[in-house]
Specification:
The complex is a heterodimer. Chain A has 2 helices and 7 strands; from the N terminus they run E-E-E-E-E-E-E-H-H. By secondary structure, chain A is of the alpha+beta class. Chain A folds into 2 domains: 83 residues, Sandwich (ATP Synthase, domain 1); 45 residues, Up-down Bundle (Single alpha-helices involved in coiled-coils or other helix-helix interfaces), CATH 1.20.5. The longest helix of chain A has 21 residues. Chain B is built from 6 helices and 6 strands. About 3% of the residues of chain B have low confidence. The chains are: A alpha+beta, B alpha/beta.
Chain lengths: 138, 295
């Protein structure tokens, strides 16, 4: 069995996860990255997206994060996210509504506007949520 | 001496007041517990965040973000005043407003314009009564259930206002929850962000913190983290103010209940005295009447 590292996912409202895992895959701003035990200290911001991890029993699990930061140390990965949800906690109707809203706003705003950027991020968030919620078996 | 009936009515009314204050005390106690739990749940995030921020701030350039740069000339400031929506919590709101007023007077005497962002009705009402400019008000947040999104929405508005020059400095006034007995008001500068304390050098972690690979560049990462730092501070202020409000109300209602008990005791004494006086009077009447009949 591979050596384990600790995964901690923290949001302002609660500890979402704190458990020993084999591997963590996270959506970094410059691309997805994977962390195994013994990783070089690494700090990056995250995009809205999916965190995959394999728990101690080798079961694959996924989690949605709305963006944030991740710090990897040799024996520990800490993810600081504004919100993080397990698949079963995702409110898919709300995500769909958010997607629609974001698309509407994107159609109205000019491309160099701050609101445009925000709508874009909101859209990504909604899309990622829906994608995870619709994946089976996680 | 008050008549029997009057005293009795008063006793009944004080007893009713006591029921209310007692119930409010109990409600405040249970809300306080909830608020404290939320506060504790937030602590790990806040601690980790400031640790990471400290590391990054160390490596990024001084002028990495416009949020860090103080304005050469400060003409307008914005005060974020956090108070409760409801009263009956002793001097809690008064203390907060007083702190804000002190800051305001100090700035006005330097010829600086002051505007307000209000969390909570009490502070808003004060601003209205004193004809202060209110940029934005958020009601029904403090003391209730609220999520991080309240802090990020309001925080983003403050940042936007700062960047487009609506105001040159932003301060926040909130209650610092130190325990059941003390919730002193605290004034903190939000924007421009005061110098960030860098990570302590004496922890064991430093050896590998120094070798962190950082993606994207430290400057970019800092630029992403700074606004979040503002949100965190606002969220923290809101949590502390909420917790303090409940603690203050608990204390105030406890005192009120005690005062009610004292009043009931005194009134009961007065009632008994009045009753005894009435009985004595009646007896004297009867005795007097009987004596008269004997002739």
């Amino acid at each position: 069995m591979a050596e384990l590292l600790k995964l901690e996912v923290v949001t302002p409202e609660k500890y979402v996860i704190s458990e020993d895992v084999e591997i963590v895959m996270a959506p970094g701003t410059l691309g997805e990255f994977g962390v195994l035990s013994g990783h070089t200290p690494f700090l990056t911001s995250l995009k809205p997206g999916k965190i995959n991890y394999k728990d101690a029993s080798g079961k694959e699990k996924a989690l949605f994060v709305s963006g944030g930061f991740s710090e990897a140390l040799p024996d520990k990965v800490t993810i600081l996210a504004e919100s993080a949800e397990r698949r079963r906690d995702i409110d898919i109707d709300r995500a769909r509504a958010a997607l629609e809203r974001a698309q509407k706003r994107l159609a109205q705003e000019k491309a160099d506007n701050v609101n445009f950027e925000r709508a874009k991020i909101a859209m990504y968030r909604a899309i990622e949520r829906i994608k995870i919620a619709e994946t089976r078996g996680l | 001496m008050a008549t029997l009936k009057e005293v009795q009515t008063k006793i009944v009314s004080v007893k009713k007041t006591k029921q209310i204050t007692k119930a409010m005390n109990m409600v405040a106690t249970s809300r306080l517990r909830g608020a404290q739990t939320t506060m504790e749940a937030f602590r790990p995030y806040a601690e980790k965040f400031s640790e990471v921020l400290g590391n990054i701030a160390d490596k990024a350039g001084d002028d990495a973000s416009p949020l860090l740069t103080p304005r050469e000339e400060v003409n307008k400031i914005n005060i974020v005043l956090m108070t409760s929506d409801r009263g009956l919590c002793g001097g809690f709101n008064f203390n907060l407003i007083e702190a804000a007023e002190k800051l305001m007077n100090e700035k006005v005497s330097q010829g600086i314009d002051v505007s307000f962002t209000n969390f909570g009705k009490k502070g808003r009402d004060w601003c209205r009564n004193n004809k202060q400019q209110i940029n934005k008000e958020y009601l029904n947040v403090v003391g209730g259930k609220f999520g991080f999104n309240v802090a990020s929405t309001s925080g983003q508005e403050l940042i936007d206002g700062f960047l487009d020059g609506t105001y040159d400095e932003v301060y926040v006034v909130f209650a610092n929850f130190q325990g059941m007995a003390a919730q002193p008001p605290v004034v903190k500068q939000l924007l421009p962000i005061p110098v960030i304390e860098t990570a302590e050098a004496d922890t064991d972690d430093t050896s590998y913190i120094a070798e962190h690979i950082i993606e994207p560049s430290p400057d970019e990462l800092l630029n992403e983290m700074l606004p979040k730092n503002i949100f965190i501070q606002i969220y923290n202020g809101l949590l502390e103010t909420s917790t303090s409000e409940h603690a203050a109300r608990m204390k105030a209602m406890d005192n009120a209940t005690k005062a009610c008990n004292d009043m009931i005791d005194n009134l009961t004494l007065a009632y008994n005295k009045a009753r005894q006086a009435a009985i004595t009077m009646e007896l004297m009447d009867i005795v007097g009447g009987a004596e008269a009949l004997k002739g």
